[in-house]
Design brief:
Layout (H helix, E strand, L loop, with lengths): L11 E2 L2 E2 L15 H32 L5 E7 L5 E7 L6 H4 L22 H8 L7 H7 L3 E3 L6 H4 L4 H4 L7 E3 L1 H4 L8 H14 L2 H17 L5
Helix pairs in contact: 1-4
């Protein structure tokens, strides 16, 4: 469980971050009314879809590996504000306790293993189809995330950021973004992820968000770059 002690370093307060101050200038996308309207509309549609598939997904998860249906983790949002992200559970119930046994294939401040043995059979299907991420529509509706944005980083990851890395927190994290359409499981270099996130900020517009959403649909249907 994450407590306020997890934010006791010089990087964090319980409401956000203090180090470097490089996210003081909020990105124009954060307070853009049309973007927020599209987020709310998309989240409502997405939550209806989530409710429809929740029962069969829950049954499949329980039959495969009994335990919680949902998985939650503290992440850092816009300007470092912590929030709890939600997903359908795709790993064994004691995945965190087994993490030290898994080899990290990624370079930098992230953890990735494309053949992670902690992922269940049902979990592999959920990840391949991106169904595990549907509960994040709730995060979008609550305003912690956007439909399109940067990859939502973990608390431990952000504690190791340098000044350049912190710039990615100038926008809301998204359910999809540059990293998604470029193959989320094949991008294993942290600096490449940072570059993609900063490129999104430079290129951002409502039209570009819609472009990335359309690209994401194609990626999901083709199961390209699925974890």
């Amino acid at each position: 469980m994450i407590t306020t002690s997890d934010f006791s370093s010089t990087n964090f307060t319980t409401s956000g971050f203090t180090k470097f101050g490089c996210a003081a200038d909020v990105h124009p996308s954060v307070n853009h009314r049309i973007k927020r309207f599209l987020d709310i509309l998309g989240a409502l549609v997405g939550l209806v879809m989530t409710v429809v598939i929740a029962i069969p997904v829950a049954i499949a998860i329980q039959l495969d590996n009994p335990g919680p249906i949902l998985y939650s983790q503290m992440r850092c949002g816009c300007q470092g504000h912590p929030f709890r992200i939600w997903k359908f559970r795709s790993m064994v119930a004691n995945a965190e306790q087994l993490k030290h046994l898994v080899t990290n294939e990624a370079k930098g401040h992230i953890f990735k293993n494309q053949a992670d043995p902690r992922v269940t059979r049902v979990g592999r299907f959920l990840r391949r189809t991106s169904l595990d991420e549907l509960p994040q529509f709730w995060n979008v509706l609550m305003g912690d995330m956007s439909l399109v944005g940067t990859r939502p980083p973990t608390i431990d990851e952000v504690k190791r950021y340098n000044k350049r890395h912190w710039q990615r927190l100038n926008v809301k994290p998204g359910m999809t973004g540059e990293w998604q359409v470029h193959g989320r499981s094949t991008v294993k270099d942290f600096e490449q992820i940072i570059s993609l996130d900063l490129r999104y900020q430079r290129r951002w517009s409502i039209a570009y968000d819609l472009y990335l959403i359309i690209k994401t649909i194609g990626v999901v249907l083709n199961k390209d770059g699925a974890c």
